[in-house]
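agent> call fold_tool(seq_1)
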Amino acid sequence: MTLVAGVDSSTQSCKVVVRDAETGRLVREGRASHPEGTEVDPAAWEAALRTAIDEAGGLADVAAVAVGGQQHGMVCLDSDGEVVRPALLWNDTRSAQAATDLTAELGGGQAWADAVGLVPVASFTVTKLRWLAEHEPENAARTAAVCLPHDWLTWRLAGSSGLDALVTDRGDASGTGYWSPFTGEYRTDLLERAFGGRTPVLPRVLGPADRAGVVAAGALAADGGAVLGPGTGDNAAAALGINAEPGDVVLSIGTSGVVSTVSTTPSADPSGTVAGFADATGNFLPLVVTLNAARVLDATARLLGVDHDELSRLALTAPAGSGGLVLVPFLEGERTPDKPHATGALHGLTLSTADPAHLARAAVEGLLCGLADGLEAIAAQGNPVRRVLLVGGGARSEAVRRLAPAVLGVPVLVPPPGEYVADGAARQAAWVLAGGDAPPTWPATSTQTYQADPVPFVRERYAEVREMTADRG
């Protein structure tokens, strides 16, 4: 039996899965936590990956490995390959003004959408580089190369020190704001615009099944010799892991809320609502991201002093629309809509709605309304919706699963809980090992279908309150 490994280096943790390259059967796995915060020393990711590899039984018998990682994070390296400063993560909003400035400088959203398929927001790497140039000029001057979290971990697994050994893939490169999914090339003019006229070394963009090298003996406590795949961003890896095909919409409720679909054509939305990313197979991945997702449920459960099972039970005892109580869950600012300095809002509180059940229902519906807006935006870009797949930690909530079809207005398929980002990375590793024009066919996971009559008044009421939510910036 030939084994492959996939890594998911996410915002909150690192997961490693080891699978049979031919059948996809899970053989073993490991995980480790990441520190909290919106800026993190990459050494913490390295330590977590080492721990997760050990817990997964090492890589001695693994023939290939690939890394899926959180998108957009800015990792700056000096000329010696040393990290210049802690990485700014996708959910760090300090570059919000930089995003506004860059959009205006190029002539607005249409110009950016035409150039790179997206419009700058605080999440994207290009805005973080502008922030660095303006606020930390000494660190900017020391920066000889810029890469993404998955690029850096792949580089470390290879035991590399030279900046010219940095590699990435089109899926992750498409989220930087300076790589074009239309041409498959970097837009160094946009990078220079953001970074004070400088052009640091950028990772070489590999094809979907290209080899990135081999794991170096002793690198991250790993056994050497395994083939390295190019890796990809977490959203592209999840789509590969769940075997999403054109027409499939994947709704992922994790730290962020993600609505994405596999498409055979690139997208260019001048409003910036839909980011026109590439995927990990050669297709495209139009995508909408909300900054607030599963942690909305965490925060509400903490506020009510209950666990997630009880939060779900409470939500299902309240009526649809929660009696007029609406939670707009912009608890960390928001990315879609672009309100990086906004705060959450609770509206419609009355004597009859001032109880745990109504608040629990409002939290679940508020979360789902943000995803429903994303689904609508994806469809408006001309992407047919064949089926909707609900994944991520938030999908474990019975209330989320049962209320989703009513709020979204379509039936929802829920695969069993799984590490789909790590699984996608493992599937890519198997593809790199086998070669060919397509990833290996692994048996599809079973799904449970949830259906409910649509409740459009919930979204209508949510939209009214959302528009009253001010951005403090």
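agent> call fold_tool(seq_2)
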Amino acid sequence: MTVSHRLKTLSLTALGAVLGLGLAGAVAFQPVRAFAQAVEAAPAPAAAPRAVPQAEGKGPALWVVRDADSTLYLFGTVHVLRPTTAWGSPRVDAAFDSADQIWFEISNPDDQAAVMPLVQQYGISPDRPLSSLLTAEELTALNAAAAGAGLTAAQMDPFRPWLAGLTLSVAPLLRAGYDPQSGVELILKARAEAAGKPVQGLETIDKQISILAGMPEADQVAFLRSLLESFEDATVELDRMVGAWASGDVATLEAVAVDEMQSETPALYEALLVRRNTDWANQIQTMLAGSGTVFIAVGAAHLAGDDSVQEILEDRGVRVEVAP
């Protein structure tokens, strides 16, 4: 495998599971196991606010948009983290505490009951099993990789390639100590609920699932194959990205998580980042036309690169500043 192909694979894996889709942890860590074992998932209990280890320096990047009667904070997140990741920041805490309302990519990333029917509808295809799409050698590799997720190739056979790929993309993260319950959104959501702050979403769960489920089958299969080829290497670049995010190193985050996707898979880059960033910029401008203080937390890849939310806003004449 070439270095370029390996980096493309890891960028796709990391972006989908850690920086790109707010529901990645919910889909890949919990419901797929219930699916494979035919167990109906129950709604997750409300989480209590958790303490976060303090980052060195200023911590993750934070931006602010202001007008006469509105203050909007933009905060990049990582959806799945190790519990020990140090990302706590007094300035982020102050911005969050000052907000009247909190916005995430989706308002209910921990809602297993909402995710399960959608995964069943868009992620399961018994008439097009993986065994009809992969070679015998690839099925052997799938079985070995599936074991890391507590599954077998036979259990995953009805999965559509996008769901199989997403499932396998996070299996190495489990082994490396990553945990969806330590993801930024769930921690901030618990804080918001404890403080009585309303939580809203820029998108819905079904819209996020449709981004992957709507990819052509050939592209889904290519994604799954690339994951099978680099399955054991997945955490290397993820660790690098998380380190860059926690220290506010947006340039490294852009180079590792955004640039490769833009150059190697422009269609996915357009669907996963550009179109969604444009929609979110529209919503942010609507918020800016109102009043009050809003804290907006979305995957960090959306706040890096030439097509980031900030760049789109700046191109429209909206000033975005680094928060002090």
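agent> summarizing second result for user.
The beta strands are 62-66, 70-77, 101-106, 199-203, 292-299, 321-322. Confidence is low (pLDDT under 50) at residues 1-17, 30-44.
agent> awaiting next instruction.
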